[in-house]
Amino acid sequence: MAGQYLAAGLTALVFLGRLAAHLYDWWLYSKCTGRRG
Questions:
Q1: Residue 37 · residue 29 · CB < 8 Å
Q2: Half-sphere exposure of residue 19, counting CA atoms within 13 Å on the CB side?
Q3: d(CA 27, CA 22)
Q4: Rounded CA separation 14/37 (Å)
Q5: Do the Cβ atoms of 16 and 8 come closer than 8 Å?
Q6: What is the pLDDT of residues 1-35, one digit of tens each?
Q7: Is the whole-model pTM more than 0.90?
Q8: Alpha-carbon dihedral of residues 19, 13, 15, 17, nearest 10 degrees?
Q9: Which superkingdom does the taxonomy of this entry point to (predicted)?
């Protein structure tokens, strides 16, 4: 049981990490391009 919760937690963590990285990249891109792109 605990293994399933751990796996789900790691999956969510990885997903949130990738989402945050994507949003951060988009924010930097918008900032650098003056929100034209």
A1: yes
A2: 6
A3: 9
A4: 28
A5: no
A6: 789 999 999 999 999 999 999 999 999 988 888 76
A7: no
A8: 30
A9: Bacteria
Q: 22: which 2 tokens?
A: 């994507």
Amino acid (one-letter) located at 23? L
Give the type of residue at 33.
T
Structure tokens at 13: 């963590």
Residue at token pair 């990490």: 17
Residue by residue, DSSP assigns 1-37 as -HHHHHHHHHHHHHHHHHHHHHHHHHHHHHHHHTT--
